[in-house]
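Hey L., structure's done. Input below.
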Amino acid sequence: MSGAVYVADWRNDRIQKFDPDGKHLASFGVSGREDGEFYRPSGVAVGRNGNVYVADWGNERVQVLGPDGSFLASLRGESGLSSWGVEYFSNNADELEAREISDLEPDLDLTPDDFLRHESASIEKLFWSPTSVSLDDHDNVYVVDSCRHRIQVYLVSVV
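Output:
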């Protein structure tokens, strides 16, 4: 629906959809960690095809839902080194050396209760508190990865 307003309802762990006049049209999701469930959704964006992208902060991911709220995909993060990062490291050899000897994907022994947060905190490529999601005119996905102080970009051909 053109002009619809989508709201990430943080405390109620759902996405709400309203028409331009504020009439409630739909709610997507419930509390939880499974596909289509949320734990403190913090941002939402809608693509040209109606797919809904949700920054699922507490579950350390972005979920992609169909226009009807059905689960389509989950993105956990897949960062690489940007051209800015390459430039930074080319000017900071000691930082590059430290990065090269670091284990950026360590084996972890985590309990189910602390798994997602600690896994994301320990593995560099993963989202660690994604707070916002946005799309450009081509439906490329931009995710604010707040605890890593970066933006991860997914090109439309990948999503």
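Residues 83-91 form the longest helix (9 residues). The mean pLDDT is 92.

-- N.
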